[in-house]
Amino acid sequence: MTDQTDKPFDYAGHADQIAASNSMYQLMDFTPASIAALDNFITEIWGEQGESPDNDKWRPSEGKWKTILNFGIYFGEVIRRRLNGEWKKDETNPDDTAMLRMVLPEGLTIYPVAKLWKRFRNCVEDSIDPLMREVRRH
Known about the structure:
- The protein is mainly alpha-helical and 138 residues long.
- It has one domain (11-137).
- It is 49% helix and 6% strand.
- The chain has a three-stranded antiparallel sheet.
- α1 (11-21) packs across α3 (62-83).
- The longest helix is centred in the middle third of the chain and has 22 residues, at 62-83.
- It is globular and about 35 Å long.
């Protein structure tokens, strides 16, 4: 996610836009509680079954992929702001946005977009709130 000049993508600014554009549906204030609310929102809107549980070949529609990417960036940005993380691209495939990493100072690495992909694929089985709570303990 870079522009034509290869300037680094502004994940924080993008997350701010996501929060503002979704504020009529739910409070997105970059708190851990907003991750629990997002988890519940996904279940309420898309159901409890998941799109294709445990099917690694599942590919979301273009519209759903944009939702996954936006929610994943928001999830990662909540972690970054709370725990001083840093966004990193996959070294072997920097254009693969699903493999964006959030690296925390103590070395813990999280893949927020990939986690949201699994959340949509498997639904409540791969909820994001438990991961948020676990990350906060470190």
